[in-house]
Amino acid sequence: GNISNKCTDKLKVDLELPTITGIEDLVVQVGGNVDLLTGVEVSDTISGLDGTFEVSEESIDTSVAKTVEVKYTVKDIAGNINVKTRKVIISQAPSIEYSVEDGIINEKGYAKADFYIDVTVTDNSGQGIKEIKLCTATTDRCEPEDGSVITDTTAVRAITQEGDNRICVKATDN
User: Fold this and answer.
1) Rounded to a whole number, what is the distance in angstroms from the first to the last CA of the chain?
2) Exposed, middle or buried, 169 (CB in 10 Å: 0-12/13-18/19+)?
3) Contacts of 89 (CB under 8 A, 6+ apart)
C-alpha cells in the first residue's frame, strides 16, 4: 500500500523576554548633559533580537529641575517584548542663605559686638543634603574644604570675631 510521511521543520519556542541592562536612575545637574544610551545593553539568547529597540525620549531638556521617566523597549524575533523604565532626575544644586538679626550690622557694614550668622541650606534636588562644609576666618583665605563637616542638618550657626570675618559654605546633596 501507499504510505505518506511528512515531518515539520523544527518548531521553536521562545518564552523568555529579551534583556535590557544598565537601566539605573540617573541624576544630572541643571544644564548638564545626559546620554540615555550610555551603559544600556540589549540582548536575547534564544531567538535573537528583531532589531526593535526604542527609547521613549530622544533627548531631555536639562535647563529646569524635574524628573523625567524614560521607557526602553526591546523586541525579540519570537515577538517577546521587554520594557524597562528609568528616572532621569535633573537636579539643582543646594542654595545657601546667610542671615543675621536685624540691627546688628549698621549701614557702614560694622557691628559693635560679636554676633551669630545663621546659615540655611535648601535642598533643591529632592535628594536631601549630604553634608555642609563651613569655614570661618578673620583672614582673606577661607575655603569650605578647610572647614568643619556638618551632617544631618540644613541649618548652622557661626559666630564672628573681632576684625574682618569671612564665612564660606559648601553644601552637597545626595
Assistant:
1) 83
2) buried
3) 25, 26, 27, 28, 67, 125, 126, 127
Closest by Cα among 112, 98, 37, 27 to 62: 27
Give per-residue pLDDT as tens, 35-55: 999 999 999 999 989 988 999
Report helix, strand or coil for 152: coil
Rounded to two decimals, the pTM is: 0.63
> Which among 9, 20, 25, 71 has a CA at the least distance from the CA of 43?
20
Instruction: Report residue 43 as a C-alpha cell.
Output: 540582548
pLDDT tens digit sequence for 163-174: 777 788 888 887
User: 6-12 long-range CB contacts below 8 Å, 24 or more apart?
Assistant: 12/47, 12/78
Contact assessment for residue 126 and residue 91, using Cβ atoms and an 8 Å cutoff: yes
